[in-house]
Model the fold of this input.
Amino acid sequence: MYEFEIKNRIPILFALSTCPRCRRMKEFLKMNKIHAKIIDYDLLSREDKREHLIFLQPINPRLSFPTLIVGDLVVIGEDYDGVKEVLNL
Done:
């Protein structure tokens, strides 16, 4: 799952559609013209949620949102300095 994005360092944002922190992170990416694959976990089907949970849990055991993955780097929460660092902004 997401091998292409990880290999090519395409940002993947795991978020919740109703989360204010997630909304701000989406806006931050948009303002910085970062094209990311955005996954709103709460809008996935039950089966897709299960698959994404299996993918995400080793990366972020607390399963907190937002979680940004760029290659082999991960930024959890509203850590904009961390986001800038992994995205070379």
Notes: The first helix runs from residue 3 to 7. Helices lie at 3-7, 20-31, 46-56, 80-87. The chain has a mean pLDDT of 97.
